[in-house]
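User: Predict the structure for this protein chain, please.
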Amino acid sequence: MQKYFIILGVILFLCIVIFFLKKKALSLKYTLLWLFLTFFMLIISIFPDILSVISKFLGFELPSNAVFTLLFGFTIIILMQLTSIVLREKGGSKKEGVGCRWVVGRGGGGGEQLSSCGGKS
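Assistant: Here is the predicted structure, written as structure tokens:
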């Protein structure tokens, strides 16, 4: 019974990823990693014996240790991908000369500049 709930959850996750792809909330090149992860989870949930084979191949005594390590590895890969996106976006804003400024208002419409960034004051 648990197997069917896991398969249903993976299929629901796949639908969410495809929905975000259709709405263009995610671009295709960033979605490929999520699709790969989803299909990997689907294969493992349909054929759970594969996990034992993978854990023995990688040298783990228990399949749960292999699951923990694989999930940690996928998390690191996703964090690296997100970091590259943020760095690319940050680099793009510097090229365009976009700055940021925080201003505190003083009742009469004037303001006092507290901080600025992007090289412009």
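The helical segments are 2-22, 28-46, 49-58, 63-96.
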